[in-house]
Design goal:
8-stranded mixed sheet, 44% helix, disordered C terminus, alpha/beta, 12% strand
């Protein structure tokens, strides 16, 4: 009997050991470039760029999506905005190198409050808040709960509204007690590594993914057991949260721009982005043909123009979008405009393991 038990436990123990080893390797490959700040009993990690003398834009706070970390937005915006603004790139609670904090941080409202506290610690009174995908739900919560700190809102392919269906099975499994621990400690790392290349390409499609994207943005950090668990809890709770809270978006009064693509197979723009445009009075919806789920990387110029407009400059975002469409038509194959959940979930909150959304 003991031999049978040992035979069964040995491969599990080996898998857990392998995952621990790889987790340390992921951190060595993608070390923390930010700084941990205590915001009241736990520490939030962020990469802060102080306001330069040449700044012509208000402070900007960047919020990454699910399965991500601050390196994703750093890779998209740090260099193009260098010398133009104070910037704060945040690891959301429980992601990247941030600590999780209390149970309130399992919801976008709690994470929005955490970011507001971090801004106070950094001396940032008001900022343009940029939220990509899942980060869009947090940006919306921020605009509702902290209008005094909101200079404006920029939503990039946001996930903000109720959708039919749910999220993938592995999120539910990972969030379970006992079985979830075993799954995240023994299965996620080898499964995620096998799917990482295709998963990150899927997030960009139909647009090409930058060749150095994986090396520069550290998507493997989400495969660490605790990070994957927190990511799973976030995703499994989002649907009920937006069902209850999306009605509050009409309270947002800050200048708002929503940038979305008609070829986004991760988050359906007709539910989320168009819903936001209807909810937030005076907001501007910028819909770009041929654009997938990564406007932060694919149409960075349009996103920066949106920040400039929120900051008070005169910018024709619709003209910028048409120009971007011409470029995309040359760079990427034609994509259908009626995407029907190619990844199997109409929200995109359930991409392949390790995909950023």
């Amino acid at each position: 009997m003991l031999a049978v038990v040992s035979t069964l436990l040995a491969p599990i123990a080996a898998a857990i050991g392998y995952s621990c080893y790889k987790g340390r390797q992921f951190e060595a490959t993608c070390p923390n470039i930010g700084e941990l700040t205590d915001i009241g009993g736990y520490r939030l990690n962020a990469f802060h760029v102080a306001r330069p003398e040449t700044a012509d834009l208000p402070p900007i706070v960047f919020i990454h999506g699910a399965s991500g970390n601050l390196l994703d937005q750093v890779g998209a915006f740090l260099q193009p905005l260098e010398g133009r603004a104070e910037m704060l790139f945040v690891d959301r609670p429980g992601h990247g190198y941030s600590e999780r904090g209390g149970p309130e941080n399992a919801l976008p409202s709690g994470q929005a409050d955490a970011i507001a506290k971090l801004m106070e610690s950094r001396g940032i009174k008001r900022a343009v808040v940029v939220g990509h995908s899942f980060g869009g739900a947090i940006a919306a919560a921020f605009g509702v709960r902290h209008p005094d700190k909101t200079e404006g809102l920029l939503f990039l392919a946001p996930a903000t509204h109720p959708w039919p269906g749910g999220v993938e099975w592995y999120y539910h499994l990972a969030a379970m007690p006992i079985l979830g621990w075993l799954f995240t400690h023994a299965v996620v790392v080898p499964l995620g590594l096998r799917r990482l290349e295709q998963a990150t390409q899927n997030v960009f499609r139909p647009n090409p993914r930058p060749d150095d994207y994986i090396a520069k943005t550290g998507p493997t950090l989400v495969l660490r057991p605790r990070a994957f668990f927190h990511n799973a809890v976030d995703c499994t709770r989002l649907l009920e949260y937006v069902k209850a809270q999306s009605a509050q978006y009409s309270r947002i009064t800050a200048p708002t721009v929503i940038i979305t693509g008609d070829s986004d197979g991760i988050v359906w723009e007709h539910l989320h982005s168009q819903g936001l445009a209807l909810d937030i009075a005076g907001s501007e919806l910028v819909k770009i043909r041929g654009l997938g789920h990564k406007p932060d990387y694919v149409v960075t110029d349009v996103a920066i123009a949106a920040v400039e407009k929120i900051g008070g400059a005169s910018r024709d975002l619709q003209a910028a979008a048409r120009k971007a469409e011409q470029r995309l038509a040359r760079e990427t194959p034609a994509a259908p405009t009626d995407i029907v959940a190619p990844l199997g979930d109409p929200t995109g909150l359930a991409p392949p393991v390790a995909a950023e959304n």
